[in-house]
Amino acid sequence: LVSRKVKQDDTVLDIDGVRIGGNEPPIIIAGPCSIESEEQMELTAAFLKSKGVKILRGGAYKPRTSPYGFQGMGVDGLILGSSVAREHGQLFITEVMDTRDVEVVAEYADILQIGARNMHNFALLREVGRARRPVLLKRGLSATIEEWLYAAEYILSEGNNEVILCERGIRTYEKWTRNTLDLSAVALAKQETHLPVIVDVTHAAGRRDLLIPLARAALAVGADGIHVEVHPSPATALSDNEQQLDFAGYEQFSAALSSLMRVA
Ligand code: PEP
Ligand code: MN
């Protein structure tokens, strides 16, 4: 179902007027790694709104490497994220990690995110396939392109055609980046499927100094959008404090991309 052999024309999502894919200008999904407080979300949403960002991200359920790391605010985070996004006329995207949470996350989020670590969680893929919400599907840490596209197929096969593919870097032997951004996967996914494909530069690079060149490269190979983490005070963030942009950093980032964004 994801194949271009089945559907030749690009799938263009229209999520409350925000259009993603096809010939639409690339979109930006931005916001903090984790939802931490009302003040943090308010500041971030207001700033990003002033920069034209229409999709606000923020994790309420966090897939942390250590069980002792900050695990997210859960339902309180969902309530906060969705209300702040709504106040600013933005869509809210957040990760769902457990089949038992799909219903509540779908109640608050406009887009459900499947994280890299859950790309192979077929029960969860089926469950979001039955939810009436668009799904952003990250590529697994060590997933082949074929496995990634089959994961999308799980969602479509349950009747949900609103899937956005997201390349976020894969594990290689390289240590100077957190992951290795696989641009050929972006070009291939665009070629093989009709789905929108976006690139998460933050989790790919794991370092701020590469975000601009990687985002430029992603747009050059045809990505339909960029996903980037932005936090009012990255140094004190409860997760991913090495890689989130502060507001000044985001201003530079968006200025550097503006000529490639074809924003109306
Ligand atoms: C995230 O976007 O919050 C995240 C945890 O990313 P990934 O699943 O790509 O590691
Ligand atoms: Mn993060």
From TrEMBL:
Keyword Translocase: no
Keywords of this entry: Transferase
Signal peptide: none
Keyword Transferase: yes
Domain of life: Bacteria
Name by which UniProt lists this protein: Bifunctional 3-deoxy-7-phosphoheptulonate synthase/chorismate mutase
Taxon lineage: Bacteria, Thermotogati, Deinococcota, Deinococci, Deinococcales
